[in-house]
């Protein structure tokens, strides 16, 4: 399993727009085989940082998602919404390998 961690620098005056963008992706990502772990918006402390995490079974599945998403009209709509509203200024993406409790 591979987990993608996204750290966004958002416009604090556009949290509602960023939340709308996040909800789009919460519905989109599972269509491509991913598991979304949610978005995390500012509550206390820094008001311009938002986080998101999602996982795929493997890096190969993540790479396939990127190819398929690039051709999807709903993804294009989400990307256009972010560009139009400028609800985030930039983001950084990191990948992690989770260590989970053993089942059994």
Q: How does this structure look, described?
A:
It comes from Variibacter gotjawalensis. Residues 7-99 form the NIPSNAP domain. This is NIPSNAP domain-containing protein. The protein has 104 residues and is an alpha+beta fold. It has a single domain, classed as 2-Layer Sandwich (Alpha-Beta Plaits). The chain has three helices and four strands. It has helices spanning 15-28, 59-69, 73-85; strands spanning 2-10, 35-40, 49-56, 88-96. It has a four-stranded antiparallel β-sheet. A hairpin with an 8-residue loop joins strand 2 and strand 3 (49-56). Helix 1 (15-28) runs antiparallel to helix 3 (73-85). 13% of the residues are buried. The mean pLDDT is 94.
Keywords:
104 residues, alpha+beta, Alpha-Beta Plaits, four-stranded antiparallel sheet, 31% strand, globular
Provide a concise account of the structure shown:
The protein is an alpha+beta fold and 104 residues long. The protein has helices at 15-28, 59-69, 73-85; strands spanning 2-10, 35-40, 49-56, 88-96. The protein is built from three helices and four strands, in the order E-H-E-E-H-H-E.
- Please state the average pLDDT score: 94
CATH topology: Alpha-Beta Plaits
Distance between the termini: 19 Å
Beta-strand percent range: 25-35%
Instruction: Supply the number of structural domains.
Output: 1
Q: Over all CA atoms, what is the radius of gyration? A: 14 Å
* Helical residue percent band: 25-40%
User: Largest sheet at a glance?
Assistant: 4 strands, antiparallel
Low-confidence stretches: none
- What overall form do the CA principal axes indicate? globular
Question: What's the helix count?
Answer: 3
- CATH class identity: Alpha Beta
Order of helical and strand elements: EHEEHHE
Trace the largest sheet across and list its strands: 2-3-1-4
Structural class: alpha+beta
CATH architecture: 2-Layer Sandwich
Number of strands: 4
């Amino acid at each position: 399993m591979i987990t993608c961690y996204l750290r966004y620098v958002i416009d604090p005056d556009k949290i509602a727009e960023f939340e709308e963008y996040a909800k789009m992706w919460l519905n989109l990502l599972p269509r491509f085989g991913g598991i979304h772990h949610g978005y995390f918006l500012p509550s206390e402390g820094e008001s311009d940082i938002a986080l998101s995490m999602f996982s795929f079974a493997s890096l190969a599945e993540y790479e396939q998602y990127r190819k398929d998403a690039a051709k999807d009209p709903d993804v294009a709509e989400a990307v256009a919404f972010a560009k139009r509203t400028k609800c985030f200024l930039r983001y950084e993406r990191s990948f992690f390998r989770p260590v989970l409790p053993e089942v059994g």
